[in-house]
Each structure stands twice: as structure tokens, then as C-alpha cells.
Amino acid sequence: MKIVRLNWSSSSVLPSKSYICGYCGNSLASDRGFFAQIPDTNIKSFYIYICHFCFRPTYFDMIGNQTPGFPYGNTVNNIPSEKYNRYCVESQVANSPLDTIFYCKFI
To answer: pLDDT tens for residues 47-66?
Structure first.
């Protein structure tokens, strides 16, 4: 497998892209970020868009795969904070998946 070094641009205006941010979960359309070209071509193949809500980067590859992906499920509202905090602590103690632990710490 040949490793190709990509030529990344400085921050620039990109074609507008609608997506759901994998960090904050907001739906947005961004036109700010970075692109990469494969050397010796003029093809812009990879993009990093910046969320204008949380200012974190989202990477899109040549075929449009998003990293990080958007969160699954819906937000659950009106959970008393003492129950929510207890759930997060119990998830950590029970060796639950890292996604659950990260989500609890992130909120």
C-alpha cells in the first residue's frame, strides 16, 4: 500500500456542506475549513469543515464519509440532574463503552 502525502490548504472558503456535527450534535451548513489535494493533481479530495457552534473540526474523505460521525438517537429532556449524574457514575463503574462515559463527561 502506497502512502500519499496530502497537500493541505490554509483556512479557506469551501463549497458549502450541510452536516450534523459529531461533537455538539448541531445541524449546520459550513463553508469554512481546509481542503487537501493529492500531489500533482488539482483534485480537492479531502475536506475539514469547522462547526460554527463548537468550533471543532469534522473530516470528510473522498467518498463523503464523516469523522467523527453524528450522534445516534435523540436527546432526552427533563431528566432530573441527580438521576442523570448517578447514571453517568454507574456507567463508569460498570465499565460501559467509552462513548457512554465520554457523553456523560461531555454534558
So the answer is: 999 999 999 999 999 899 99
Residue type at position 14: L
Beta strands at 27-37 and 7-8: parallel, antiparallel or unpaired: antiparallel
List the grid coordinates of 27: 445541524
What is the percentage of the chain residues whose pLDDT exceeds 70?
Answer: 66
Strands (E), the chain: 7-8, 12-20, 27-37, 44-50, 57-60, 66-67
Measured from the Cβ of residue 51, the count of other Cβ atoms closer than 10 Å reads 21
Interhelix angle 98-106/81-93, rounded to 10 degrees, is: 150
In degrees and rounded to multiples of 5, residue 9 shows phi and psi of: -80, 170
In this structure, are residues 27 and 50 in contact, taking their beta carbons and an 8 Å threshold? no
What is the rounded radius of gyration, in angstroms, for the C-alpha atoms of the chain?
18
